[in-house]
Design goal:
Oligomer: single chain
Shape: elongated
Number of helices: 4
Largest sheet: none
Radius of gyration: 17 Å
Structural class: mainly alpha
Number of strands: 0
Length: 79
Amino acid sequence: GEALLLENLRFYAEEEGKPRGLAEDASDEEKKAAKKAVKESQKEFTKRLASYADCYVNDGPRRLFSEEERWGLFISSTI
């Protein structure tokens, strides 16, 4: 099998789901439009990520190893 390691996705607005670059004094209407744009962008971002592989794990190694037992239970229950 093969594994693909992606860069840290938290640097993408689509991963966080929050609009970036809005002025602090942005109106509610501007905030709503920006959030809608991020939601649309998330759909394309998700499609692009999904095209890379059959399975995607959204977790880092440090967290994975610190929760090894929980993950082992999760993985064995899904196989």
